[in-house]
Design a protein that fits this description.
The relative contact order is 0.14. The two termini are 36 Å apart. Helix content is 43%, strand content 12%. Strand 17 (584-585) and strand 18 form a beta hairpin. The strands form five sheets. It has a six-stranded mixed beta sheet, with helices on both faces. A four-stranded parallel beta sheet has the order 6-5-7-8, sandwiched between helices. The chain is globular. The protein contains 27 helices and 18 strands. By secondary structure, it is of the alpha/beta class.
Length: 691
């Protein structure tokens, strides 16, 4: 993971650990708030989904049981392979991406149709005998059943075969599970009379991009940016020595232009929020006089503060709007409710506050003055909490401000408390099932902080994903609601086809799976489908990275790998264009998709941040046009981010104090453990009064 910004003369958190700042601490210490009930932070989770005892379960278990009844593993494998002889053949002409089994190490197809009586018929083909045998088990066990009976089948048929891991490696077992998911998906489409999948998507190939659905068309329109727009932007940036730092969640139009501009001008940088300020410092030190920040306000404020602290107060920093470009999550951490939550931690023995990186520097500074604080990202939050528990016996974790991420942590640890010690140790070597169980009552998380974007992945979206995309690769940002989190965790644990983490983790996961498919060199090619469980602005980076690999693969003689990006758009996220007022989220109108009326809703939707959309290409061009012009300073003044108050003599700046929790994280990233100074702060800070 990229390293956080580095403030000059701050090489280690040990040099920064000091007594709390009295002025900041006084705000909450004067009034201690009763400790919150731990039970609110822990929600037991079951990852198992049981189906009704229907005819499908009985028949399929009977077929699988005949294999399991053989006396030893070799005989069981022979019986399984023999089942392939009864599999109705699927001619090559009928093998298509729609019936190809994803996540299978061998080439495999399973095709579902309905006979004249509405009963299920299965045909299949694979280049591997064991895989063909499993398809034969499904054909014998599910053929002739009603769609409802097929859809009610348990997912654990692999266990019913009685084959251990030595005979049936996890990769092959995952492929079998996915074959069953593929059968269910096709059965649902037939039962519901659908001729297309419910969500829009982009199909990426070496030769181009095919958009499916109006929302996807709107995304695709800007993947190939207008050359004149790129040239105009580059001309302004070079002439006026302007750098640009932008978050991944920009509109596809903006990202397309910026990524093209970056090829012609080195001072354009697109990333997650962690390293935007660091990039801005490098740009100014390389000669840029101004930096445009395309993101929400806490990002531009961080850039301003880090530049000031690095001695670059003369460099200009501009936002893209005179109005506030808010962030519901960062603002939650600045509320009275959050300071009351921190007050509950003040004085608690061995308390540590784990704060999400997507918060302002003054928030981090204030928090660290109250309770020892370390930042985390969505990719390292699990390891951060587990490492704190490993180094500080009896640690009390206070996580915030993201409620969904906190709830997902609690759910994950609850799942882990049922795993074997070996499975737990694979996540963190210092832990076992017993230590995870012991940690759960000492984990709290803030109850009132959400990102409006990730809040859109509601239950209706997840139900549709589960029903129609159960065989796809599932991706989820750690901030999404529990339903989407569980989908991705199930895909990761049960089928090795999921990822939960940061935007960078999701991008890397997609690219790695595409690389794996290219390396397999299947003669019939492959199509990989990924459900994008995060903000749609990520699609530009994903598409460009995937297509670059697909183009190279085609040049190297591997031409037929395809990558489909699925947008989980809610059925409720449709608004009429022109006649109906756009919906509102948090008081900010949501603009419908430019084609077909697809937009966002708070019921679960396209996951497109309305605040981020204030960072338009037109806004960037207007700001650049005013830089360096007569009267430009006055018109750009409202575009400048808030500046923190200057430090008093002998005190550290807000930026320096706010970087302390970041440096604790940096120590952990580098050394794989927290510094002695930080651990000492955790165990001694509460000496003034234990709770």
């Amino acid at each position: 993971h990229p390293e956080p910004p580095v403030v000059p003369d701050m090489q280690s958190s040990s040099a920064m650990s000091s007594a709390p700042i009295a002025g900041l601490r006084a705000r909450v210490v004067a009034k201690r708030v009763a400790r919150r009930n731990v039970d609110r932070a822990i929600r037991a989770v079951s990852t198992e989904r049981s189906a009704a005892n229907n005819l499908g379960n009985e028949k399929l278990r009977s077929v699988a049981g005949a294999v399991a009844a053989e006396k030893d593993v070799s005989e069981k494998l022979k019986a399984l392979i023999a089942r392939g002889g009864d599999l109705p053949a699927l001619p090559e002409s009928d093998r298509a991406p729609s019936n190809r089994v994803m996540g299978c190490t061998s080439q495999a197809w399973i095709d579902v149709s309905l006979d004249a009586d509405g009963k299920v018929l299965l045909r299949g083909h694979s280049d591997a005998q064991i895989t063909t045998g499993f398809a034969g088990v499904l054909a014998a066990g599910l053929g002739g059943l009603s769609p409802e009976d097929v859809l009610g089948v348990d997912d654990d048929v692999v266990k019913d075969l009685g084959l251990g891991a030595s005979a049936l490696p996890r990769s092959r077992a995952n492929g079998f599970r996915n074959m069953l998911e593929s059968v269910k998906k096709q059965t649902r489409l037939l039962r519901d009379g659908r001729d297309a999948m419910p969500f829009p998507s982009l199909l990426v190939t070496a030769d181009g991009i095919e958009a499916r659905g109006p929302f996807a068309e709107a995304q695709a329109n800007y993947l190939e940016p207008d050359a004149e727009a790129v040239a105009a932007l580059v001309k302004e940036l070079k002439a006026k020595k302007i750098g640009v730092v932008a978050h991944f969640y920009m509109d596809p139009q903006v990202q397309g232009v910026l990524m093209a501009a970056a090829k012609e001008y080195e001072h354009v940088f697109i990333s997650d929020s962690l390293v935007m300020a660091d990039a801005a410092v490098k740009m100014v030190e390389a000669g840029c006089d101004a930096v445009c920040v395309l993101g929400v306000d806490f990002m531009s404020e961080n850039v301003r503060a880090i530049l000031d602290d690095a001695g670059h107060a003369d460099a200009k920093v501009y936002r893209m709007a005179a109005e506030d470009i808010g962030c519901s999550l960062a603002e939650a951490a600045q509320s009275d409710a959050y300071y009351e939550y921190l007050a509950a931690a003040d004085g608690v023995e061995n308390a540590v506050h784990v704060i999400y990186i997507n918060t302002a520097l003054d928030t981090k500074a204030n928090a660290d003055a109250i309770v020892p604080t370390v930042t985390c990202t969505s990719s390292n939050v699990v390891q951060t909490v587990l490492q704190a528990a490993a180094q500080v016996p009896g640690v009390n974790i206070f996580y915030g401000p993201d409620t969904y991420m906190g709830g997902n942590l609690a759910e994950l640890f609850t799942m882990m408390s049922t795993w074997t010690d070996e499975e737990v140790a694979a996540v963190h070597p210092a832990h076992s099932r017993a230590t995870i169980k012991a940690l759960l009552p000492r984990l709290r998380y803030f109850q009132d902080g959400t990102c409006m974007v990730h809040h859109m992945f509601g239950g209706d979206v997840c139900d549709t994903v589960r029903k129609f995309y159960g065989d796809a690769y599932q991706t989820a940002h750690f901030e999404v609601p529990g339903e989407m989190f569980k989908l991705a965790m199930e895909a990761k644990r049960e089928r090795d086809m999921g990822v939960v983490g940061s935007t960078k983790n999701i991008l890397d996961f997609v690219v790695d799976r595409v690389d794996d498919a290219i390396a397999r060199k299947h003669p019939n090619g492959e199509r990989l489908s990924f459900v994008l469980g995060t903000e749609t602005g990520m699609v530009t980076s994903i598409v460009r990275a995937a297509q670059a690999r697909l183009k190279k693969a085609k040049a190297d003689g591997v031409p037929d790998v395809e990558c489909e990006i699925v947008f989980p758009v809610s059925a409720d996220a449709v608004t009429a264009t022109g006649e109906t007022q756009a919906p509102s989220i948090g008081g900010l109108a949501v603009v419908p998709g430019p084609a077909g009326g697809e937009g966002c809703s708070s019921e679960g939707g396209c996951a497109s941040c309305p605040y981020m959309k204030m960072n338009s290409l037109d806004a960037l061009m207007r700001v650049c046009a005013r830089v360096g012009t007569e009267g430009g300073a006055a018109t750009l003044a409202p575009m400048e981010p808030k500046k923190y108050a200057a430090a008093k003599e002998g005190e550290k700046s807000v930026a320096a104090r706010g970087c302390v929790p970041i440096l604790h994280m940096r120590d952990f990233t580098r050394d794989k453990k927290f510094s002695d100074a930080f651990v000492n702060d955790i165990v001694t800070r509460a000496a003034g009064g234990k709770k």
